[in-house]
Structure formats: C-alpha cells, structure tokens
Amino acid sequence: xxxxxxxxxxxxxxxxxxxxxxxxxxxxxxxxxxxxxxxxxxxxxxxxxxxxxxxxxxxxxxxxxxxxxxxxxxxxxxxxxxxxxxxxxxxxxxxxxxxxxxxxxxxxxxxxxxxxxxxxxxxxxxxxxxxxxxxxxxxxxxxxxxxxxxxxxxxxxxxxxxxxxxxxxxxxxxxxxxxxxxxxxxxxxxxxxxxxxxxxxxxxxxxxxxxxxxxxxxxxxxxxxxxxxxxxxxxxxxxxxxxxxxxxxxxxxxxxxxxxxxxxxxxxxxxxxxxxxxxxxxxxxxxxxxxxxxxxxxxxxxxxxxxxxxxxxxxxxxxxxxxxxxxxxxxxxxxxxxxxxxxxxxxxxxxxxxxxxxxxxxxxxxxxxxxxxxxxxxxxxxxxxxxxxxxxxxxxxxxxxxxxxxxxxxxxxxxxxxxx
Length: 420
Description:
Elements: H1 2-15, E1 21-28, E2 34-41, H2 44-53, E3 57-63, H3 80-95, H4 100-110, H5 114-128, H6 133-138, H7 146-158, H8 161-216, H9 224-260, H10 262-273, H11 278-299, H12 304-314, H13 318-332, H14 337-344, H15 349-361, H16 364-414, H17 416-419
Antiparallel strand pairs: 1-2, 1-3
Helix pairs in contact: 3-4, 3-8, 4-5, 7-8, 8-9, 8-11, 8-16, 9-10, 9-16, 11-12, 11-16, 12-13, 13-14, 14-15, 15-16
C-alpha cells in the first residue's frame, strides 16, 4: 500500500512538470536562406537540437514573452490570417527537409492558440493513420476551403508539396493583404461618420434643450435657423428611441436578407461596383483576386477548367462570378481564354492582352501573376488616395454640422441687445 502511494506520488510529480516555453528563433537553412519561426522547447539547448535536426543552423533565439494577466493566450477563434501563418511555417519546414508529419506536430506544439493546437493535432492524427493530407484538410471546411484542398491534392500527386505550400502561403498572404486594404478604405470614413452622428445626437438631445430654456426667458422671436434646430432637437428628444430601433431593425433585416437571399446578395454586389470611387477600388480588387487565384491554381497544375471554377468562387462578387463561369463554359467548348474574357466585357483591355500573350508564349500563370501584382499595387494606391481625398471632405462635413449647431445656438445671444 505504501509502495503504491509512493508510485502515485512520483507519477503526480511527473504530470506536473513545467510546460515548455515558446521561443522565437532565426536561422539559416541548408540552402543558405534565412528562416524564422516559433517553437516550443524545454530549453534553448533543446531548441537548437530541434533546429539542427531540421537542417537549420540556429542564430538569434529569444523566449516569447507571456501575455500579462493571462490575456492573449488560450483558445482564440481562428481566422484566415492564422491559417496563412501556419501555411507559411509549413512551407518553410518542408523546404528545409522536415517530414510532413513532424512539421505539423512541431507547429502545433509551438502554437500558443489552443484551437490551432487542437486543429493541427487532429489533422496529424489522421495523417499518421495513412489518410492523405488533402482529405484530412477537407474534414475542416471552416478553415480549409476547396481551393486550398485542391491545391494540396495537386501537390501530393506531383510530389512537390513544399512548392505547393509556398504558393498557397503566398496566395493567402496576398489575399489577406488585399482584404486589409479594402477594410481600410471602408472603415475610416464609416467610423468618422458614426462618431459625427453620435456627437450630433448628443448635442441635439442634451445640449440644445439647455439653450432652449435660456431662450424661453428672452420673450422674443428666435431666428429661423435657431428655431429649425430646436424643432429637430424636440423631435430627437421625443422619438430618439424609435429612430434607434428603426436603425437596428433595418440593419438586422439587411443582414438576414443578405444571408438568406442569393438574389439580394447579387443585387448588392452589382450596386457596390457602381459606387463612386469605392466601386472602382472594389473592381480592381476583384480583378487582382481573380488573377492571383488563377495564377496560383494554374501554376500548381490544376486544369484550366477547374482553375476557372475556383477563381469564380474566390472572386467575391456576383458580377464577376457569373462572368467567370461563362468564360469557363466558353473555354470548355474550345475558345481561347482571352477571347472569352473579351466577350464578358468586364475585364480591362490590359488584363486581356496579358492573358493573350501568356497563351501564345505558354506562360499564362506568369502573366496572371504580373497582372495580380499590378492591380494589387493599384488598389494600395487607390486606398491611400481615397483616404487623402476623404479626410478634408469629412473635416468639412463635421465643420458644417457641428459649426452649424453652435451658430444656431449663439444667434439669439448675438441679438440679445435688440431684445433688451
């Protein structure tokens, strides 16, 4: 009995060993290329041993700081940026010659997100049992879409998985960068206008009534502009909750209809492309996404018909989705892709000419990659120009609205001498 208690005591001590630390490392692989990443290890010495097994000569190593007060760690929701990061790490390890199963295991153990650890652990478990990686990934469609899985399957068939993962990582990184630019273009003006609306509502509901009480003691007729602002204030005080409910109701109805109605989503996509300035940016972004997707899939050895279907799904806009599917139909019947794109009448001439040159030279994927680079750069410049253009317009708008309210409140005070 004493022996068993001693044994259980030792076992409990083993189970309460200190967890490994996460280290940020930099080094050089066998090809002389600089690589970096994060790994979990008990010590720096163990980390260096792991890196040398991967064919990496370790350089700078530092312990990753732990989040204060327990924030930032644990199980956080996974997004496309997390998948892009893991894909890049996997491409780096496979290029360094680390086996696939070991690479996924090391990335999972070194990740500080419990959800990512669980996801990679599940994939690795099935992979170790002999299931192809592409099939393992298809069981998690929330994180790995059909395009991702099809590219991995292509890499498995060709035996160039490290090259495919490098292309997927580049594709994911470019896609996320493009999304960030579009969000930047939309978020700034919307956030400023929302703040302006809130400030105006506060002035009308709480500040104007104070001035109104003062004006009531004047015993004189108020200027028309002041009376107009007071009328708006009285309406806001009486019915602000109805307006707020209507605003939330309209937002809820729009979101629900957009989620449930394909026809409504298509109408919204068409309307967005017709917006001034913003529509042009979104148009260029869709062309860049189309070119990047088609270039990545075509270079990976995916048949053109399947690549066009993937590009249609990744376009993110109903107008281009329908046009690309029509192009796919015409290409499958024997028409050249550049002619089919010209028939769609939505692609710029430069894109069509680049595709035509690529078809003649047999380098369609290279030409499309160049098109993607050009349009991604144009989106970046357009977003910067939009921000520079909108800033003075928003400042002018705020000046007119806030300044108008202040003038309306002080007009009677300017005329107080006549009243007295």
